[in-house]
Amino acid sequence: MKNICVLLSLLLLSSGAAFAQKKPAAKAPAKKPTAGVSPALLASGKAIYAQNCLSCHQADGGGVDGMNPPLTKTDYVLGDKPRLIGVLLNGLKGVEINGEEYRSVMPAQTHLTEQQMADVLTYVRNSFGNKASAVTVGEVKAARAAKK
Amino acid sequence: MKINPTRPLLLAAALASSFGLYSLTSRPSAVTADPNNAGLKLPAGFGALVVAETGARARHIAVTPQGTIYVKLNRAKDGKGILELKHTAGGKATVTGGFGSYGGTGIYAKGNYLYASSDEDVYRYKLDAKGEVTNPAQPEKIVSGLLNRGEHESKSIVLDNAGNLYVNVGAYSNSCQEKDREKGSMGRPGCPILDSAGGIWQFRADKVGQTYGTGTRFATGLRNVVGLDWNAQSNQLFVMQHGRDQLHDIFPALYDTKQSAELPAECLYALTKGANAGWPYLYYDPVKKQKILAPEYGGDGKKLADAKYLDPAAAYPAHTAPDGLLFYTGTMFPAKYRNGAFIAFHGSWNRAPEPQKGYYVVFQPFQNGKPSGPWEVFADNFAGSAEKVASGRADHKPCGLAQGPDGSLYVSDDKAGTIYRIVYNQK
């Protein structure tokens, strides 16, 4: 049932987007996010992304060949949430993603608050063509506790 | 105006004779530029062709005096880390073989040998009288065990005229922070990375089994060099350093995103033995034209660095990633290019959110072995469009440079694997 709801909202969203394309002046639909993620939360995530992530992962989330991994079409972003939260908590280096090697070091982002981590991960999971459930502060707290 | 009836006849005769001359001078093997110059924008009189599409990450490239092309691949393709290409009609070439199971960047032909590097080792292969490798499966391993910690891992190579081999060992760090690239993390005192990386090492080109212990740290304080070449006029090694990244990300209170996009310059250095270019303690500000103390070591964007460090010989736009350097010694191109430097700029990523830049080959004029006058973009539009430059989503990224026996300039591309050849066709 939940899946059906998500599908339905996706359909609504995509038709909304199409509508918005025809009439750019139209209000609400263009910004309406998926899976119950509020526009305010996404805006917050976007600002955190611009400040902390964009210079490596780029404005389109596509990363940099051989250096900085893309945030699109990857299980790292769309899959297991504790693992994804762990990337912010611990940093990441030398992973192979979809058969491609990425060499740059990603530093831990522990200067971010738990709320900021949740917001930016939710933004990433719902941007650049990604559609996945939000990351909550509770999940960040749990991942951090598990790490300790 | 009265038309002279003999005129068309004269014109026809002139045309016929020029065609005759053309057919006499152009042999079937003559190099013909592609109608669209391979998509490149070039100065008047130059043309370009796609020599071959390798479909692999073509890093550096070497052309033997007989014209055989060797391309080093970043990752082995079908088990081959080096491709051999031979010329066909019109100046194009086709892949005729491959060998060396290792990925890497460096490849250089000199005398009777072809040298190539993995990210840890340097090998050499024997070339025969036809300029072809005779022992593809049994190269000599002349250097081994160079540091590869995944960051700035490529080992570019070049030889001088005295039997020495120069190898770049890049620093496995952006700016020698306690925690690499972490916001606010300060520099490690007396940066220990410099002991085994962040410089150019010198080895003998003809000696098997060398390591750090038998090599010499020729120059230090160089973050990462990918493009390097020997200048025969000044008898000196020149290198292009990739400048540090992320001034804004790491020190947002000191640098805004615009400053971070324009700082620091990518620098050309003229090296002598013992030279120290000052990484990680400084960066070069191309606007102030000064060496600035790095924020990791107490800098604030204004404080000057210790003057003892080497000044760059020339400076180029920040983050544009110079991956290939070649001193042009051919005679095909007009006189102004002779002994000057071509530099392949792979293109930036660290200018975001500002538009990206690069993806071109630059010409830097030289006189008496020193940079002389402003550089200019020589070959542009590897990216495919201005939008693709700005977004960094380039179709092609120029990486390696080589000079063909006729004076053609070869350019390799490690994005799509295209091998370009630039020729001068105006006499």
From TrEMBL, chain A:
<feature type="domain" description="Cytochrome c">
    <location>
        <begin position="40"/>
        <end position="128"/>
    </location>
</feature>
<keyword id="KW-0408">Iron</keyword>
<protein>
    <submittedName>
        <fullName>Cytochrome c</fullName>
    </submittedName>
</protein>
<dbReference type="InterPro" id="IPR036909">
    <property type="entry name" value="Cyt_c-like_dom_sf"/>
</dbReference>
<keyword id="KW-0349">Heme</keyword>
<feature type="signal peptide">
    <location>
        <begin position="1"/>
        <end position="20"/>
    </location>
</feature>
<keyword id="KW-0732">Signal</keyword>
<dbReference type="InterPro" id="IPR009056">
    <property type="entry name" value="Cyt_c-like_dom"/>
</dbReference>
<dbReference type="Pfam" id="PF00034">
    <property type="entry name" value="Cytochrom_C"/>
</dbReference>
<dbReference type="InterPro" id="IPR051459">
    <property type="entry name" value="Cytochrome_c-type_DH"/>
</dbReference>
<keyword id="KW-0479">Metal-binding</keyword>
From TrEMBL, chain B:
<feature type="signal peptide">
    <location>
        <begin position="1"/>
        <end position="23"/>
    </location>
</feature>
<dbReference type="Pfam" id="PF22807">
    <property type="entry name" value="TrAA12"/>
</dbReference>
<dbReference type="InterPro" id="IPR054539">
    <property type="entry name" value="Beta-prop_PDH"/>
</dbReference>
<dbReference type="InterPro" id="IPR011042">
    <property type="entry name" value="6-blade_b-propeller_TolB-like"/>
</dbReference>
<feature type="domain" description="Pyrroloquinoline quinone-dependent pyranose dehydrogenase beta-propeller">
    <location>
        <begin position="307"/>
        <end position="422"/>
    </location>
</feature>
<protein>
    <submittedName>
        <fullName>PQQ-dependent sugar dehydrogenase</fullName>
    </submittedName>
</protein>
<keyword id="KW-0732">Signal</keyword>
<dbReference type="InterPro" id="IPR011041">
    <property type="entry name" value="Quinoprot_gluc/sorb_DH_b-prop"/>
</dbReference>
<feature type="domain" description="Pyrroloquinoline quinone-dependent pyranose dehydrogenase beta-propeller">
    <location>
        <begin position="41"/>
        <end position="273"/>
    </location>
</feature>
